[in-house]
Design brief:
The structure holds five protein chains of five kinds. Chain A is globular, with a radius of gyration of 25 Å. Chain A contains eleven helices and three strands, in the order αααααβββαααααα. By secondary structure, chain A is mainly alpha-helical. Chain B has 20 helices and three strands. In chain B, 62% of the residues are buried. Chain D is built from 21 helices and two strands. Chain D is globular. The chains are: A mainly alpha, B mainly alpha, C mainly alpha, D mainly alpha, E mainly alpha. Chains in contact: A-C, A-D, A-E, B-D, C-E, D-E. At the A-E interface, α1, α2, α3, α4 and α5 of A face α1, α2 and α3 of E.
């Protein structure tokens, strides 16, 4: 099997490599890809949408329909992971560990044992015991706000610089994931519940599709943001720019929520009690 | 030819289908049987009401839907189809009466299913009789195959299961494997499937292709039980006797030969076949089947099996009559559909009656049974006379025309075939009658006391037996219809 | 940008890729896949596809790696090939 | 409003999917009505689109108001409007049946289930309406991802076979993406109509050839064309029946649609049939698919497994029909998309009902089913007859066109394979029907007139009615074949093909 | 010799994507471990993304962000000055799709592990066979 696979792969690869001779030269400015459709974007994007970052303009406006479904794909992945993994009925773990905060001593309680009730002194920790690390905790706590600030910047500044809703959303999600890793899953869930994640993801995509549908209600085609001009009280080019911002925010929300949601489900295998 | 647009053929088909829900949902058996009778009589009346129109030289047409160009579900009533429809719809009434006697006499299970599918099969038979094109013919042919399956396998035991498999394998397998491709080839060559008086296959097709199509179609309609694709028929005799009687002596097998006749006359056309002498192939195949089946019948001990092989032989008479391509032979062939139906159904009814009354299935056990069941055995005698082709029974008239047809066609060998096979027929029927009346019973079961089958069984037997005789003296409706059919085909 | 730099990064990508599928430890494979993604991100940045590079950095090198680690943590590190 | 019908077909279910997902957390009982409502709206919108297409010809809809090839457009002609109606109709018919089994199979996850269900339908509809090659890929991934999830939450081996499906499906989609990339490399466009205009100058380029090969390999994997079918049988047979009765009728059929779109409208018939000259080997491959699919089906011991292999054979029908390269063959292929969707729906719904009532679908447990579930089995028989190809059920007519096309093209191997598979189907289905018809009575042939009432155990009404409607649909589709062909399908084939 | 070198220089980026695709394909075909397969799948996808990005490259052009958009003086924009943005857009979508697929694939892998307690395909098949017996 190994040899056979290797032979097939090498054979296919060499045929493909041989046929690259038909390709246009790498980076040639006159190749069809660079001359047929794309010049229009480069030359008109700023005038049409008032967005200097052409990628953002194309992503969220010219091919905004694609991007809507790109966001939907992420949403699908979130639901799919939940659908596949989540175990809703509560299973009591056979062993729970508690840390006595003042002393740092760990309590091991077998199933059926009495649970400590004073939650200010005792804190439940993961069974795969991780030593309490002050440095990591503090560093993360300090870094996370800045990560989130940066993420917001990436989302809102996507018109002018690389980035946009998707990247910003991932970073925002990553900050929560970092929080979950540095403390534990239960703390993260108590800060941002699963239900909130689900709502936010649906809301995010809904903002995108809803913005498009709003255009449709206002009489233009689906996703034609210029129809938003009377609502936003700007001219139609700026309306497109604002429309892009709106959908980027939607994308950011959805992506953030889904990333967190997937992480919750994967890291706890759907149980949502003990994570990474 | 004048044509009349009328919904009657569709009504004749739908009558029994619409009866099915009533049959299924009727609470008591008596009401169920009433529905069957209402449907059967209504169907017969509708069919009969078409006779004057047809006899006055007109045709009734009705197109239900045009599926696409050249392919439609359409009906046309001509003399040939009407003849077949009269026979089968009349015999349905008789068989229904007989079924009641038989099924109740034996306390059979699932009688509701039995009567429902019986009604369905009759619809399909009417559809075949009235179809105006090859596609409709094929449609109802398949419908008949599937709706008779539950009837054939009514007993639901291992034997029924085996026969059911064989039945489907032959009938459906050959129709899909043989008829369907032929139909498509024909459609692709001509762009139509509508039957015409002189056939719609043009002369410029290569003879080899025509020969291939002809033979494949002949075997494809496996319900005609032409050898070597006949063995489903004896196997299907496991069914309750009324089923065997109606379906395997009347509806199913006759549908098979009816299809063959339709294809020979309506698709290939007399002219094309006689010019290319391809009818000889069919004649040879049919003759082979006649002789072989008769010989096999001689060696059978089960009464129903013997009757089955007799049927195989008799069916080929009809095919032979059509393939002779002489007007009188054609008349003989078509008449034989009716005459053989009456004769053979009598025989099957008798077999069933014997089984109901005594439980006997084999010929060797029937010594002296005539003393116990004199009416039944007398009817049996009349039926066998008709099948053999002796006066004063209807079978004589059709055989007579067949013989004349062979003379017209100048095929003396075929004449010999018919005569020899008639002798063979006599050889396998008369011993039964003889031993029934003149041999002493060896079985204790058969007492000398007269002890007939239930009255519901007996009356149908008498009706069909008398019918066989009446048809000898008054063959008019059938004879004139057959002659009209022959005229319309052979007049240039 | 010189093609030599391009080539070096490309080579690194390929090496990381091969290593990721051949290492006999799934956690290692996940981490190597992160490295692979990061190299890929460099390559794209070199090619001028800044947005794609940014996305790959956040998704491929970031979230994907976390997901791999999470999945490996919930299953097993063991692999036979 | 009517000019926005094309958009409504997609966005109504899309937006409702988000609503369903959100309401799933608040009140589970609301999910089902929302899903039914949105799919019904989508069905009406798609019928509206079909009417528009029948009246005015091709409908174009510019998303975002940008002209193609710069923006994305819907380009709806007779071909996709027909397939669109099929998708919406199957989705609506099927969703009604899912109400009860979902509570049993996916208890607590009704919200996600219906969200995924609706998204799956959205993805497929989107694939069908879009006029942009790359957009097609994105929607393909939506349909696939939701499909993996719906399949993955099944019984015993479901997760494994779903993972297998995922890996194969991703390879397939990636190959398609690669093919589109190759096309983009040499044309610089992603709009299907635009590419078709640009391609004739560069037919002889090796890149176009490879683009074609990649697209085809990708689609063949996705549609489970033999020998790339290995993912399908396990994936479909271990999935829960409420999910599979949606996925099985639609996925392969939509992929066939994409193949027809790609060969006839992206690469023109001139390229696919004349320039490449590979019709013969492709037809023979499909012959192989038909024969092997039928033979594999013959060796199965459970109902759903058998049906999945029949799907493999049916895919062979449609691929072969397309590659016959003549009008009749392609008509047959398109007609079979419609008919096979209906037939598969009918059969899988019947299997679902059986599974719901019996908790098993192995042949051994189906004894005496005709008495227990007469209506389900009647519909099953109708589906079986249609697959076998008995008139007037619809399966007969698409087979008719396919065989006619085979005869016209002189491909008698293909004709033979079709007939062979019909015969095998007779054996397959009558084996099932025989078991359902006989078994409990073998030992006591005469004494069960009473038992029939006590044994009667039919599926609930909301599962039965759609099934019976599907069975009637088979009949209606068969009878109106001529209308479908003359009104719709004949315009769906490029005029160059005779 | 020089000619070959220029060919290589002008095409080697394309070879890179083929190499990556083949690595991915090899992993998916040969590796028995499910997570390894998933990694192979991702490498395969990134290979294709690399191909698309390579299409977009334009020699002598800069990143596709119009410089005077940041309040600088307006001037006529020439298409040759900026890299083709379209493949980038497409590949943003493709990356998202690949991470979505990765998420679902890992979820399925966890589910498989839950059921069979192993990720090796041959061991799983053996278990299935044993169960059947």
């Amino acid at each position: 099997m190994r040899i056979l696979g290797l032979v097939i792969v090498i054979l296919c690869g060499s045929i493909l490599i041989y046929h690259t001779s038909d390709f246009p030269d790498w980076g040639h400015p006159a190749s069809p890809a660079s001359t047929h459709v794309s010049p229009y974007y480069i030359e008109k994007a700023l005038d049409d949408t008032a967005v200097p970052n052409i990628v953002t303009a194309v992503l969220a406006d010219y091919r905004g329909y694609d991007t809507m479904f790109e966001t939907t794909v992420i949403f699908c992945a979130g639901i799919a992971c939940f659908f596949l993994l989540r175990i809703t009925r509560r299973m009591e773990p056979s062993v729970t560990l508690y840390r006595h905060l003042p002393t740092g001593i760990t309590l091991r309680i077998e199933k059926g044992g009495k649970e400590p009730d004073d939650s200010n002194i005792f804190k439940r920790i993961d069974t795969q015991w991780v030593p309490y690390d002050l440095i990591i905790n503090t560093t993360c706590r300090m870094v996370i706000p800045f990560i989130q600030l940066f993420a917001l910047y990436v989302i809102s500044h996507g018109h002018h610089s690389p980035g946009g809703g998707f990247q910003g959303g991932v970073i925002l999600g990553a900050s929560v994931i970092l929080f979950a890793i540095s403390t534990d899953l239960r703390t993260a869930i108590s800060r941002m519940s699963e239900r909130l994640g689900a709502f936010l993801s649906a809301t995010g995509v809904f903002i995108y599709a809803g913005a498009g549908a709003l255009c449709l209600v206002l009489g233009a085609n689906f996703l034609d943001y210029s129809a938003l001009a009377p609502v936003l009280n700007v001219n139609s080019v700026m309306a497109r720019s604002h429309g892009i911002l709106i959908v980027e925010i939607g994308v950011g929300l959805a992506v953030m929520a889904v990333m967190i949601w997937i992480y919750y489900n994967l890291s706890s295998a759907g149980r949502h009690d003990e994570g990474l | 030819m004048e044509t009349i647009l009328s919904i009657k053929p569709l009504l004749a088909i739908l009558v029994s289908v619409t009866a099915v829900p009533f049959i299924v949902f009727s609470k008591r058996p008596n009401i169920r049987e009433v529905w069957t009778f209402i449907a059967a009589i209504a169907k017969f009346l509708i069919v009969v009401s078409m006779i004057p129109v047809i006899l006055s030289g007109k045709e009734i047409i009705f197109t239900l839907v045009d599926i696409f160009s050249g392919v439609s579900i359409g009906f046309r009533v001509d003399s040939l189809g009407l003849l077949f429809a009269i026979v089968s719809s009349f015999l349905w009434i008789i068989t229904s009466a007989y079924s009641i006697g038989y099924m109740r006499g034996l306390n059979e299970h699932s009688q509701t299913r039995y009567f429902s599918f019986f009604a369905l099969s009759l619809s399909a038979t009417m559809g075949v009789a009235f179809s105006s094109n090859l596609f409709t013919l094929y449609l109802f042919y398949e419908m008949l195959s599937f709706s008779t399956y539950p009837l054939v396998t009514h007993h639901q035991d291992m034997e029924a299961r085996r026969s059911g498999r064989k039945y489907l394998l032959y009938i459906v397998g050959l129709s899909i494997g043989f008829v369907l491709p032929c139909m498509l080839v024909i459609y692709n060559m001509t762009g139509t499937l509508e039957f015409t008086k002189s056939g719609f296959l043009s002369m410029d097709v290569s003879p080899a292709l025509i020969a291939a199509l002809l033979v494949i179609m002949l075997f494809g309609f496996a319900k005609a039980a032409i050898m070597p694709f006949h063995s489903w028929l004896p196997a299907a005799m496991v069914a309750p006797t009324p089923v065997s009687a109606l379906l395997h002596a009347v509806a199913v097998v006759k549908v098979g030969v009816f299809c063959v006749i339709r294809v020979i006359t309506g698709v290939f056309g007399v002219e094309l076949l006689s010019n290319s002498h391809l009818n000889i192939i069919v004649c040879v195949i049919a003759s082979f089947t006649i002789i072989t089946a008769s010989c096999i019948a001689l060696s059978q001990d089960g009464l129903k099996r013997r009757l089955a092989f007799s049927t195989i032989g008799q069916l080929s008479y009809i095919v032979l009559g059509a393939a002779l391509l002489s007007p009188r032979g054609f008349v003989g062939g078509i008449l034989h559909i009716a005459m053989h139906a009456f004769g053979k159904i009598t025989l099957f009814f008798c077999a069933g009656a014997i089984f109901v009354a005594t439980g006997i299935k084999n010929i060797s056990q029937m010594d002296g049974i005539g003393k116990r069941m004199p009416i039944t055995m007398a009817a049996f005698f009349i039926g066998s006379l008709s099948v053999i082709g002796l006066p004063p029974c209807g079978g004589f008239i059709s055989k007579w025309h067949l013989v004349l047809g062979t003379l017209d066609a100048g095929q003396l060998a075929l004449l010999a075939v018919i005569l020899v096979s008639s002798l063979l027929n006599a050889a396998y029927f008369f011993p039964i009658v003889y031993s029934a009346f003149f041999n002493q019973s060896k079985e204790t079961r058969v007492s000398n006391r007269i002890d007939e089958a239930p009255i519901w069984c007996l009356i149908p037997i008498c009706i069909t037996a008398i019918g066989s005789i009446v048809l000898f003296f008054h063959p008019e409706p059938f004879l004139s219809l057959a002659q009209m059919a022959a005229e319309s085909i052979f007049i240039k | 940008m010189s093609w030599q730099l391009d080539l070096i990064v490309l080579t690194m990508v390929v090496i990381c890729g091969i290593a990721a599928i051949n290492i006999r430890d799934l956690l290692g494979a996940g981490i190597l896949f992160g490295a692979y993604s990061f190299m890929m991100c460099l390559l794209w940045a070199v090619m001028g596809a800044v947005d794609v590079a940014f996305t790959e950095a956040s998704v491929g090198a970031g979230v994907s790696t976390v997901l791999f680690v999470a999945a490996v943590f919930r299953t097993t590190r063991r692999t036979k090939d | 409003m009517s000019e926005h019908f094309p958009a409504l077909v997609i966005i109504v279910p899309l937006i409702s999917a988000f609503l369903i997902s959100a309401t799933g957390w608040l009140n589970k009982r609301l999910c089902f009505p929302i899903a039914v409502f949105s799919l019904t709206v989508s069905l009406f919108a798609s019928i509206g689109v079909l009417m528009m297409v029948l009246e005015n010809g091709t409908v174009q809809y510019r998303l975002g108001g940008w002209a193609p090839p710069w923006g994305i457009e819907y380009r709806i002609d007779h071909l996709n409007s027909l397939v669109l109606v099929v998708i919406s109709a199957v989705a609506v018919l099927n969703i009604v049946t899912t109400h009860k089994p979902v509570q049993q199979d996916f208890s607590g996850k009704e919200g996600p289930f219906y969200a995924l269900y609706v998204l799956f339908v959205t993805g497929l509809s989107g694939i069908v309406v879009t006029g942009d090659a790359f957009n097609l890929y994105v929607l393909l991934e939506i349909a696939s991802l939701t499909g993996y999830a719906l399949i993955g939450l099944g019984k015993d081996r479901a997760a494994l076979s779903s993972l297998n499906y995922l890996i194969m499906g991703t390879i397939g989609a990636s190959f398609y993406l690669l093919g589109i990339g190759y096309i983009y490399l040499v044309t610089g466009s992603l709009n299907i109509a635009d590419i078709a205009n640009l391609l004739p100058d560069i037919y002889d380029s090796g890149v176009v050839l490879f683009a074609f090969i990649f697209c085809m390999i990708g689609l063949f994997i996705k549609m489970a064309f033999f020998p790339l079918h290995a993912w399908l049988p396990n994936a479909y047979s271990y999935a829960q029946s409420s999910a599979v009765s949606l996925i099985a009728p639609l996925t392969t059929k939509v992929m066939i649609y994409v193949m027809i779109r790609v060969t006839l409208y992206l690469f023109t018939p001139q390229f696919s049939f004349v320039f490449l000259n590979i019709s013969k080997p492709m037809v023979w491959l499909s012959v192989l698919a038909i024969v092997m699919g039928s033979l594999f089906a013959l060796s199965q011991k459970s109902l759903k497994k058998m049906l999945t292999y029949i799907i493999v054979a049916e895919v062979g029908y449609m691929v072969g029909g397309l590659w016959l390269g003549n009008r009749q063959g392609i008509t047959g292929s398109i007609l079979h998309i419609v008919n096979d969707a209906a037939m598969t729906l009918c059969l899988f719904l019947a299997a679902g009902n059986i599974l719901y009532m019996l908790k098993s679908d192995s042949f051994e447990d189906m004894k005496g089913l005709f008495v227990k579930m007469p209506f389900t089995m009647a519909a099953f028989t109708a589906g079986a007859l249609s697959i076998i190809g008995v008139p007037p059920f619809c399966g007969f007519f698409s087979k008719w066109y396919l065989i006619s096309g085979g005869i016209a093209a002189g491909e008698f191997g293909f004709v033979g394979a079709l007939i062979f598979s019909s015969l095998v189907n007779v054996v397959l289905f009558f084996r099932v029907i025989e078991i359902g018809y006989y078994e409990p009575f073998t030992n006591h042939p005469n004494a069960h007139q009473k038992d029939e009432e006590t044994l009667f155990n039919e599926a609930p009404r909301d599962m039965l009615v759609p099934l019976l409607m599907a069975a009637i649909l088979l009949l209606a589709l068969g009878i109106f074949t001529g209308h479908i062909v003359t009104a719709i399908i004949q315009f769906a084939i490029p005029t160059g093909i005779i | 010799m020089n000619e070959i070198l220029t060919t290589i220089i002008s095409k080697y980026n394309y070879w890179g994507f083929i190499l990556l695709m083949m690595i991915g394909l090899y992993a998916m075909m040969v590796k028995k471990n499910l997570v390894k397969k998933i990694i192979g799948m991702n490498i395969f996808q990134t290979g294709i993304i690399l191909f698309y990005v390579s299409i977009g490259v334009k020699k002598g052009a800069t990143i596709p962000i119009i410089s005077h958009g940041h309040g600088k003086e307006k001037h006529v924009i020439h298409a040759a000055e900026y890299i083709n943005p379209l493949p980038h857009v497409l590949m943003l979508t493709a990356i998202v799709v690949s991470v979505a697929t990765l998420g679902v694939a890992l979820a399925l892998a966890i589910k498989v592990y839950r059921e069979y307690d192993t990720l090796e395909e041959d061991e799983i098949n053996k278990k299935i066979r044993d169960q059947a017996k």
